[in-house]
Amino acid sequence: MKILVAYDGSEAAGHALTRAGEIALHGHEVTVISVVPLQASGPRSAGPIISGDVEEHGRELQDAVAKLKGSGVEAETIEAVGHPAESIVDEAERGGFNLIVVGHRGHHGVARFLLGSTALRVVTHAHCDVLVVR
Hints:
The protein is α/β, with parallel strands linked by helices. About 45% of the residues lie in helices and about 25% in strands. It starts with a strand and ends with a strand.
């Protein structure tokens, strides 16, 4: 089984990472994805702008991989830029993943009210099973 774990450094994402690691101990492949969100363009902007810290997301990915490795699980990483839910679903389909693991809540509090929950959007649009971890 191929498992894709959405990770943004939040407490809920940490729970999702732990659960994915537990599942992976049974011989499954794990990839951790971190998505740097885009913000809608302003009136003078030529297009969407990155609203997150790319370097911070890279560090979060490396921390996630280190946590998994400490549990005996090797993991790959994917760094993406875009709408978090769309990016997670697209990568899951493109990579042929069988399971997406997401936290119940993440860092994107205000955006959640405007765009809807990332977990809910992933559940709604994913082609594969989704495990939402509390």
